[in-house]
Amino acid sequence: MSKLVSRRMSVAAAALVTSVVAAMLLTSCDGVQQAVDSLSSPTPTPAAGPATGGAAGDGSALAVLATLQVQPLSTEKKYDRDEFGTAWKDVDHNSCDTRNDILHRDLRSVTVGKNDDCIVLSGELSDPYTNRIIRFNRGRDSSAVQIDHVVALADAWRTGAYAWTDDVREAFANDPQNLLAVDGPTNIDKSDQDASEWLPPAKGYQCSYVARQVGLKARYHLWVTQAEADAMRGVLSTCPSQPELGE
Predict the structure, then answer these.
(1) How far apart are alpha carbons 46 and 44 in whole angstroms?
(2) Which of 32, 57, 120, 152 has the fewest other C-beta atoms within 10 Å?
(3) Could you give the CA distance from residue 96 to residue 98 in angstroms, rounded to a whole number?
(4) How many whole angstroms separate alpha carbon 126 and alpha carbon 36?
């Protein structure tokens, strides 16, 4: 091999090493900057969507509760229902809006329209919040049965959803695990209150209700206030083996 060829190969090898080292240094700097950013962040960064696996998918609701961030409600942005998208959209593309999907799921003895089997005309609800049997008739007394967001949208907004994308907020508002057909007046009484302010009148359902809230907040990386965490722990301590999401 000639000296000229050998010299050219040495130069090329040196250039390659230099490029690799530069790339490694750049990557390292990016990692350090990310660590600094996370340390200086005043609040936990909400996830882009529901988490899968991990502590939120294992064990009791009481154990999952211990993994939730605890901090005050956010006042960074004012709540607006429109931020969660159009109410009762057909997000699963089954030609039936979310409200009617939940009525089909939660009511029994359901009747539907002649020309549209999506529309629930009547049915009977065994209300989990009051233990009452409620008759639903579309039009005449539709408000007797309402669809509740177990974790209220306004509460979700104040505990992290304000920073989500529009798509994630729409998914949360239409998530079947966050929706229950319930007694209308009781749902109005609940409004947007969290577990420290409101629990279902039917005490036998309180464990399932709180466990579902815990599971949802874990999946969507929402936080809880100290008062909310204390109230949830008080309920779940009476049913320590209750699974998350009330299942």
Answers:
(1) 6
(2) 32
(3) 7
(4) 52
What whole-number distance in Å separates Cα of residue 149 and Cα of residue 173? 7
Pick from 159, 164, 161, 241: nearest CA to 194: 159
Cβ atoms < 10 Å from Cβ of 205:
17
pLDDT at 140: 81
d(CA 103, CA 121): 10
For residue 64, with 0-12 CB atoms within 10 Å meaning exposed, 13-18 middle and 19 or more buried, which class applies? buried
Please list the rounded mean pLDDT of every run of 10 residues in the chain (247 residues). Answer: 41 40 36 31 38 50 97 94 95 96 98 94 98 94 95 98 97 97 98 98 98 98 98 97 83
Q: 171 Cβ partners below 8 Å, 6+ apart?
A: 49, 50, 91
Quote the pLDDT of residue 246: 67
**pLDDT confidence of residue 19:** 42
* SS3 state of residue 89: coil
